[in-house]
Structures are given as C-alpha cells and as structure tokens.
Amino acid sequence: MRGNLLIFRLDWISIFLLLFLIGFGWVNIYSTTVGNDLSGPLLDLGTFYGKQLFFAILSLIVVILYSFISDHFIERFSSVFYLIGIALLLGLFVFGKTIAGATSWYDLGPFNFQPSELMKMIVALALAKYLSDTQVNLRYSVHQGYAVLLLVLPSILVIAQPDPGSALVFFSLFLVLFREGLPLYYLTFVLSFILAFAATLKFGLTYTFIGALTLYLSYLWLKPKRLKTPTWFTISYPVILFTIIASTTWIYNSVFKQHHRDRFSLWLNLETNKDRLLDIKQSIGYNTYQAKQAIASGRWSGKGFLEGTRTKGDFVPAQHSDYIFSSVGEEWGFITSALVILAFIALLLRFIYLADRQKKAFHRIYGYGITSILFIHFSINIGMVLGMLPTIGIPLPFFSYGGSSLLFFCLMCYIFLKMDANRLKTHFD
Questions:
Q1: Domain coordinates of the chain in residue numbers?
Q2: Which of 322, 344, 197, 363 is nearest to 267 (CA)?
C-alpha cells in the first residue's frame, strides 16, 4: 500500500539536491538584496527576496497540483503546448514589456511573466514527443530537419527580442539529438567552425589555416577504415571551414558590433593597447572583473553571511541575478562554492541515471532534454562569472532571481521525477 503512493516512489536524492539548491539560492538572494533593516517580513513582495520566496512557495503548490495530472496527458498534448508557446513568444512583439533593452516579459501587475522560461520546458517536451515516434529515425535528413526546426523556430523568436542568452539554451537540446542518433559529424562541423573562428582571431589567418589543413589531412590519413564518412561531408567540410577562416576578420570587423568585439577581445586577450584594455575592463568587463574580485576576497571559508563588503557595497551589478555566484564565493568561500558546484553536478548525473533507466522513449528523451538545459545554464553562468567565458545574460538555475525561471525550472524537473516515479508503479500493482 505504501509503495502505491507517489511520494514514496519519487527519487528523493534528486529532491534533496533540488531543495538544497533552491534554499541556498534564496539565502543568497536575501543577502544581496536586503538593506540594513533586517526586521522586515521575509514574504515582503516589495523586495526581491520576498518575491523569490513567494515563487518558491508557488512552485511547491504547482508541483503538488501537477501530481494529479496524468503523464499521458502531458505527452499527448506536447504538440499543442508547443504551438501555445510559439504564440506567447509572438505576442511579445505586440504586448511585451521591455526591460533592460529586451522585450521578453508580459506585465502582470506586481509580477512579470517571461514566456521563454516556459518555452524551454515546452520545447523539451515537444522534442521528446517527436523523437519518441517509432517512425522517426535521425539517420534520415527529413527527420533531422523536423527536429532541428523544433529548436530553431523558438530560438529565432527569442533572439529577436533580443535575448541571445535564452536562445542559446534551446541549442543545448542538440545534445539530445546526438544522444538519440544524430550523426556526430554534425557536431564536428559546429565545434570546428567555432574553434576556427576563435583561433583565427587569436593566432591569425596563416597559422590557423596551416593548423586546420594539417589536422584535416591527418584525419583523412589516420581515420579507421570502418569509420564511414559521407562523401558530402568529406568535400564540404574543408571548403566551409577554410571559408570561415578566410572571412573571420571581415565578420569580426563588419558584422559584429563594438560591444561584441570588446567581449571577444577581453575573452581571448586580443587587445594589446593597455589603455584600451583598461577601458574595456571598466565597461564591458566590469561585471566579470568585480565578480572575480568578490570571489577571490572570500578565500577558503568566506566573510560570513551578510558580511560581504563587495556584496553589501553593490560593487557587482546584477549580483542577485546573473552574477549571484559571486556572492556565494565572497560570503561562503571556496569550500562552500565547491559544494554548490558539486551539488549541481550530482543533480545532472542523477538525472542522466534516471533518464537511462526509463522504459518509455518519451520519458527518457525528456530527461535528457532537461539535463541539457540545466547543464548549459549551469556551465555558462559559472564560466561567465569566473571570466572563463564571454558575458552572456543567462541565469544560474535555482539561484538567480526570477520568478518565472524558478517556477518553470521546478515544474520542469518535477515532471521528469513524476515520470520516473510512475516507471516503478507497475511493480506495486
């Protein structure tokens, strides 16, 4: 009888990891946004920490209500949800509210609703629905085209807001396609082009061209005979690769805007003029520089809760949102920061384990989808704050302030955990 109850069939390892991340994330939002008066109510909707706490409670209510919805319902209507999500994204261009230069929100009075956060979950569901069809085979180009269209269409609408950070998340779902059988030479295409572009900026056209040509000829010579590569790939790959290398300088100077060039310059250490480099660090690179300083000042054990001088002094812009990990580093130190990173990694590995054991293809693919979404958010945000990646507006799941983000991250994860719990149900029937 006890085994029939959903609560006993849920994966509590994942739930404890989620509760830790949500709770500790809220503690850091409180630290970065509370003023000198600590006597106010925690559920003060006039504050960032109050709104975040409200959405944490709302998330709990929503997942409890979702417990009464059949998994079959969410699978059956995934395509309908996708169309609704596309309509919400299109509606932003008419009814959207602009914040910080991006028209990404609907104004709902005391709160703002960001449909791109909901769309991440919807696209993962729609992709799982399509790929789980027994007639779909990613070895065929027509099926590849439909799958890619599911990811590209919302990406285009989000880029137009403009919100390139959120658009990048949709492309993370390409990892699911590779997991489900998309040939890996597509991944070789993309990664090679990105590396060639960055290498040309860093080392120049001649050295990059010689290096790329050497690697390609070595591949043709050393590749195992059993490794079959399509003829179109063998011919088009070097043509496109060397075209990108040859056009990098033109793209960088003529297509990119100045703030894009500054971010690449800072990331790849391209600027040789010390005065210009200092100017970039104080403008485009200011957030990252201050975040790194805040983290470094925390040393091993941190300065203590509410004791971060850079946090309380507002040295790091957007510290309660995209740069909240700098508060963790300053107030809690290296040891706790490492534990937070390990908690994220443990959650990702746990989700992969749960996805691998699913009996239904839809459940398995959806599990891979949400893992990819969480991974790209986590890795890019941490890399951005530490200065290892260029600045991209992408939040840290369960930590960064944002009601829509927290609500849909929680629902997205719980949908999968409920799918996993129902995988075991037949053993108790």
A1: 2-68+286-427, 186-255
A2: 197
For residue range 244-297, what is the model confidence (pLDDT) as tens digits?
888 888 877 776 667 667 777 767 776 666 666 666 666 666 777 788 888 888
Collapsing DSSP to helix, strand or coil, 136 comes out as: coil
Residues 381 and 322 sit within 8 Å (Cβ to Cβ): yes
Taking CA atoms, 87 is separated from 82, 157, 200, 262, in Å, by 9, 10, 40, 35
Q: DSSP states of 257-315 as a string?
A: -HHHHHHHHHHHT----HHHHHHHHHTTTHHHHHHHHHHHHTTTT-S-TT--HHHHTT-
Cα 405 from Cα 71, distance rounded (Å): 22
pTM attached to this predicted model? 0.86
393, 411, 365, 360: which is closest to 121 by C-alpha?
411
Secondary structure (DSSP) of 151-198: HHHHHHHHHTTT-HHHHHHHHTTHHHHHHTT--THHHHHHHHHHHHHH
What is the token pair recorded at 338?
Answer: 């490492």
**Between the ranges 37-46, 177-186, 354-363, where is the mean pLDDT highest?**
354-363
Per-residue pLDDT reduced to its tens digit, 222-252: 766 666 666 766 777 778 778 888 888 887 7
Give the Cα separation of 426 and 429 in Å (integer).
5
Nearest to 137 by CA among 185, 180, 76: 180
Q: What is the pLDDT of residue 269?
A: 72
pLDDT digits (tens, 9 = 90+) for 190-209: 788 788 888 888 888 888 88
Length of the chain: 429
